[in-house]
Amino acid sequence: MRRLLILGGGYGGLRILQKLLSGDLPQDIQITLVDRHPYHCLKTEYYALAAGTTSDQHIRVKFPSDPRLEITYGEVTEIDLENKKVALKDEASIPYEYLIIGLGCEDKYHGVPGASEHTLSIQSIDQSRKAYGVLNNLGAGSIVSIVGGGLSGIELASELHESRPDLKIKLFDRGPTILSAFPKRLSSYVEKWFIEHDIELINESNITKVEPNILYNHDKPVHSDAIVWTAGIQPNEIVRNLEVEKDTQSRIVLTPHHHLPDDNTVFVVGDCASLPHAPSAQLAEEQGEQIVTVLQKMWKNEELTDLPRIKLKGTLGSLGKKEGFGLMANRPITGRVPRLLKSGILWMYKNHNG
After folding, report:
1. What is the pTM for the complete model shown?
2. Which residues in 10-49 are b (16+ Cβ under 10 Å) and which e?
């Protein structure tokens, strides 16, 4: 038997599993999935878990059950590309013939002193659980500072306001306006929503240091009873330590067929891959489908043809449970519709995968 080893059961890894197990999988291929948890986690909903508006169970999806799939629960400590094996913490190494690296990302602190030690995170389910415990045990009138005005920061701020309207929420954003890379209509809508809901937006911020319960913006101290960091991501440390070609964001450079330039048995999916789009769940799934196409052709000894360009359908963000914003086919949408669309997509995803 030849082993296909998948590291990480995130959006890309899960999509690859689904497509292979429901498609034409050669009889001599055994799939092994390595993940720290016995379920797939809906990372796009971590902000709601941290805010306390969604239950832990609500953001978990079972992995497929199939005799051709072996699931190993553990933490990857090293990838040995030369000897084709992966080391796990407190476990024996796992050899492979084909490898898919989908280990995801972690927070990027941009060298800000104290940021990693004194802020909360929503990059993993464990970190989101911890953030929930801290945020929902704060006393009335406590100040919560959220660093980073991207999608995660906006959704966390709005959901936390819905969960705890008694809290004083501050959102620090580096840009001159919120969502400065999006159409003006969207940034104006989100800014207006924040004003109406008493969420303080601090534009053109520059976080220079973090101490316990103190955030320094342009070196000026801001008291905070809790600080959440949502100001950027980077590939998993295991990936950053690999001696392969990477881009300026430390993501692995790949061929158009999503494998290493000098090793067509090693693929990278999701946040660790250097792609022409910003990392997202949608991108990881689309890339995962293309990786399955490549693997099936390789196993059949068929010629690899050019893959179509990945086209993303759009971006959706929520402002609590009733309003939202987004871009669909490059058209900005605001209000109730984008929130309903996001809820519908989440419902379909959970029911399809479940």
Report:
1. 0.95
2. bbbbbbbbbbbeeeebeeebbbbbbbeeeebbbbbbbbbb
